[in-house]
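Let us work through a complete example step by step.
Step 1: write down the sequence.
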Amino acid sequence: MPDLLLELFSEEIPARMQRRAAEDLKSAVTNALVERGCAYEAALAFATPRRLALHIVGLPAHQPDTREEKKGPRVGAPQQAIDGFLKGAGLTDLSQATIQSDPKKGDFYIAIVERKGQPTPSVIADILPSIIREFPWPKSMRWGKASAESGALRWVRPLHSIVCTFGSDTETPEIVHFEIDGIKAGDVTYGHRFLAPQPFHVRRFDDYVSKLEAAKVVLSTERRKDIILNDAKSLAFAQGLELVEDDALLEEVAGLVEWPTVLMGSFEERFL
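Step 2: predict the structure and record it as tokens.
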């Protein structure tokens, strides 16, 4: 079944906001998909200092078709009530409705409304702009020329690009096309700001993770924490020292770097 890859690439996201933002993105997107009949198998959210990413596994290619019965007014009701019923049900005249008899309440008009399910990429393109615009950052900003316009996009820091692809691992994924304030979704992202800033194309999640790694970006916060902690322990041990672990500090530092590299330094004792 097809998967969704979404990345929102921006300037630096404050470390304290990253985990919550990743979970908020996952909840908003998965809830909106389920509301539209697009169930999924699993969803994983990620954050680095410059990106939020979401991988949703096992989505359907299309929404399911739906069939709904809409109860209308009684037979013989005023024309105004009948016109409202026809408009709400998408019918042009009463010949398209059926009549249902109720021993206690009499005869009523019933409309059978059948809707063909949309392709899932169309559903995704429909829901994401509003999710991004209404994202619940504790603090957000506007930027550039568009910032003076009413309804300008707000984000925690300037948003630069969006990756959004959809497809199964047996086919070339398609780009889910949508646009927000001139930022068009595509399949191009960027590596580490200084070590590998060049743009590159991505296809699906596995490809995305491996290309990020080659571009000096570790996507997983937990992996960045492990690298920092283990390398710090090794350096301390090599100097006959014991590392004083601080979980809160480790979490913060992992949110400040995309390619963690641990160094050991010293300073003169007179500065203690």
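Step 3: interpret the result. Helices lie at 15-35, 79-89, 120-133, 205-214, 221-238, 247-254.
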